[in-house]
């Protein structure tokens, strides 16, 4: 049986069901006149039990609550449902809070504070109300509470929610259903839709329902139609009406969302999902299989979101009662004792009171860690949240023991050395080119300050003593901790290496790296063995002693290039950007191949098309595999021919020119595009012959260790030139 309800339009819907649905809606919402007309047109419909007085009262209560006239609403509720609010503390608090909000909105802060102290703070004995209390009282700290983080408490939405809860509670108190049939249907529809969506996501296909029980399916269908009829945003409706994680489904018991799927299948007994057609497209960056299969596409670029911690809240404190008991002083000893007991508050150098502060929220710092190679892990976890600062210990009386809230530790996120950190589609924040380089990307929220509230008659005196006292109603104070920042960042890895190994697949680049460094790259005789750059280090030239030329250099073995790589062929151009930081290119050519000269030209051409600057850099050509006879024979000819390609011009930029380094920040992100655009002229005008020829061509067999030392010598010599052009 198909899921589309249009297939079942022939199934009759009982008029009585529809009438009952409409009736329950009218009763619930106290639409008295409409209900009377409705009953007149449907003689079979009965009047509700609370009609008409109670319904009238209920309507007024609802209206009072909506208008924020909470005291009147409470008074009427007491008449209609005695003890209801006494039993339902949450509801009681919510309704009282409406009055508090009204006072805040009409800028009657002193009254609001008084009301909070007498009516709301008694709820603070229960921990669940403490947070709520803090939120409400925080409204007092703002000149314009509508723009405070607690603005929603002032919204008509909040009043509506409280009014509805009150209405439901009154109905339930009189043993009437607290939800309308229409709401139930929408809830049912929502659950069914969600289940279908979940199943659909799990087994992406065309859905089919098998219907074992037509009457039950009928319920489902009505729900579907009703939802379409009322065309309400059912999900938000559903979320708004239902507390927390509970679902109220028809006349049955509440269930938790985790049990939802099972529950629905059991209750309906007809959901059978079979999969056939469309596949849901999953984000490649979050799919581990994709990451494993195509790491080269993701290892060097990722977008993450970080959020620094909110600041901890301050507190509203009152001065301890220091009034002396009536009567004369009773002797010297007692006076001394009292003097001892007198609390000693922390004071500033000028005598002003120091009130505790909320803890600073955790910052988010990104730092370069030598232990990291790629950005792949950020595709699996792309969100990082620092902790919030600690609150000042609850509210209460000022005492000398009160401490600042604890500052949250900074969240430090390690990334590979060479990572460039940018705002998503925004400016560059840092180029973490050295191990240990770090950048603060999101600053934790500042902790809130505390307030001292005091009776009017003492205010003047205290004001002269402290700089941190609430001075008047319009005083702007920050009792709430400031929210942390959330930023989306783009991380771009630019491998940091002095030497870049380039060449066609299978030329022997990884074998070369393994031969002269401690790196252990994958080596195999099939193309594209290397998917991501491998790094290794060569020691400096021992012959030169401990001077600056003996320092080690880093080599990056890049994935193989093929013709059209700059257009995305093979592994594409993604990794070509990793040559940007190199000073020297070592071009590895398989001398045993059919046409090594052409291979050489192909790779040079690809480099030129990607970024002609690369060809301006010094390069050493390594003719590899000379242990094979076919390579050995061609060696003199190849050396000669290769040296012919290129000009004698001395590089205007040796290695990374300062221009290149300086331009790095602006070209990051747009690097590939900008380099391509910038190079358009060069591509047209210059041929390979116009770029400097290699500084050396060496025939080697890196596998058999033939002439490897000579090759190393040439590489070091070229590196020396890069460092010291003179
Ligand atoms: N005979 C001979 N074979 C070699 C030599 N160097 C490398 N090879 C072989 O060539 C094949 C390819 O070597 P790799 O080092 O994986 O080549 P690559 O350039 O890194 O290849 P990709 O990672 O695919 O770009 C392997 O089978 C090596 O054993 C050499 O000097 N002589
Ligand atoms: Mg390789």
UniProtKB/TrEMBL annotation:
PROSITE patterns: CTLH, G_OBG, GTP1_OBG, LISH, OBG. InterPro entries: CRA_dom (IPR013144), CTLH/CRA (IPR024964), CTLH_C (IPR006595), G_OBG (IPR031167), GTP-bd (IPR006073), GTP1-OBG_CS (IPR006074), GTP1_OBG_dom (IPR006169), GTP1_OBG_dom_sf (IPR036726). SMART domains: CRA, CTLH. Gene3D superfamilies: GTP1/OBG domain, P-loop containing nucleotide triphosphate hydrolases. One of its GO terms (cellular component) is mitochondrion. Residues 680-690 have a biased composition (Basic and acidic residues). Residues 54-111 form the CTLH domain. This is GTP-binding protein OBGC2. It comes from Corchorus capsularis (Jute).
